[in-house]
Structures are given as C-alpha cells and as structure tokens.
Amino acid sequence: MANELKERYDALVATWVALPEERREALLGDFVADYVYNSEKIENGDLEFSTVRDIVERDALTNYTGDAEVLVETRNLKLSWDLAREKLAEDPCLSEELICQAQGLVTMGTYSERLLRAGELPGTFKIDNYVGGPARVGIPAVEVPHAVGTLADEVNTELEEGRRSLTIAAYLHARLFAIHPFADGNGRTARLLMNGVLLAMGMPPIVIRAQDHAAYHAGLDIFHLEGDLSPFRRFLRSETLLTWDGLLD
Questions:
Q1: By C-alpha distance, which of 83, 85, 80, 79 is closest to 28?
Q2: Cβ contact 172:156 at 8 Å
Q3: Around Cβ 17, how many Cβ atoms within 10 Å?
Q4: Do the beta carbons of residue 85 and residue 196 sit within 8 Å?
Q5: How far is Cα 96 from Cα 76, in angstroms, rounded to an integer?
Q6: Tens digit of pLDDT for each residue in 2-47?
Q7: What's the whole-model pTM score?
Q8: What number is the average pLDDT over the span 196-205?
Q9: Phi, psi (5° rounding) for residue 127?
Q10: DSSP secondary structure string, 147-209?
C-alpha cells in the first residue's frame, strides 16, 4: 500500500513538472482559495468557502455577519501566501527573517489582548513557553532562536542541492510545529512555509484538508513523540493526490 501511494505520488509530481509554466500558474491561481480555506478552517470551523473565495479573488465580500477576526486571519493567509511565493521564487532560501516575516503576516492584527499584554508580538519569537497541538508540543522560549536557525540551515542544504524531495518539506513542517516558536499561528505558518518550499523545489503544493485534521495531527504527534517522519510524509502524499486529483490532465 505504501509503495503504491509513493508510485502514484511520484507520477503526479512528474506530471506537474512536465506541465507548461502557464498551466501551472493557472492551477496555482485556483489553488489559493482552497489552501486558504482549509488552512483557516483547521483553526476556525465557522468559515464558508464562498467567503474565502471573495476575499482571495476580489479582496472584498458582502453580507458577512460572522466573526471579524476570521476575516482578518483569512486575508492574512492570502497576503502571506503571496509573500512566501515571491520571496522563495526570488531566492529559494529559508531564513529566520523569512520565517518571522511570514508568521507576522499570518497573525497580523489577531494577537489577543492577553498575548499583547504579555509582550508577545506578531513576527517575533515567543517570550513565554507556550505549547500547542494535541500533544502539547513546544520547546522553551530561550531555545527557539537556535532551533529555528538550525532548521533553516538543514532545509537550505537540501534546497542548494536542487533535489525534489517531499521529505524535506515534511520535515520543515513537522519540526517547525514541534519547536512551536511563536505565541500563535504556528500551524498556519508551518503549512505556508512547507508549501513555499515545495514550490521552490518545483513540486506541487498541498491542501491539508480541514476534515483530515485528526490524521494530520496524528502524523505530527508521532514525529514529536517518536521522531518518525514516515506517517506524516505518507499523509502528505495522500493529501497531495487528493488536492490535484483530476486537475492535471
């Protein structure tokens, strides 16, 4: 089963790579709303796709009566997507500065009063020892800068070699989430940067579907608790196939 999944995934990547650039860009244009919707819905269940589509495609919406913070977070995901694509296309290199800049856009204007009073700010590493996720992941705040710098170096070594590898994108996501370097927005930032690195390697990005959040967190928890990346990587292969099924022909 695992070999079959890998074969199907590798075939999809080969098809993606062979597409004309214009076709890939058109597909990515349609991808953004789906990515933003699911990435936000993992965190906030009360979200409609039509709302996201209006924000992504028109930067406007009508007749919305829900939580204003959800709108801000949704628009932030669109802005941060544009940033990550632009920066990593110009220079396929991950840095502490880019990671902080991406998280700053993801969480711009959404930090709670409690976090702000504690001195926490979007775009800066956490001051207190916040943890998150079902497994309560997160390293002490004092260790975050070194851990993030080491992670960036590890990813850049792979990028410099010019290989296409789901493993390094999966590792970036899982390790960044395990570090939990920010007071808020860690999951959204990890999903964003994972996709940015995939695109920098010439590979298709992934929609992690909100309805699959249990399997998503299970894969992350196994990496955190056992150091085994394989279940999370298999999950990402499956989600990639679901993301692009029938769209690349």
A1: 85
A2: no
A3: 12
A4: yes
A5: 20
A6: 789 999 999 999 999 999 999 999 999 999 999 999 999 998 888 8
A7: 0.95
A8: 96
A9: -95, -40
A10: HHHHHHHHHHHHHHHT---HHHHHHHHHHHHHH--SSS-HHHHHHHHHHHHHHHTT-------
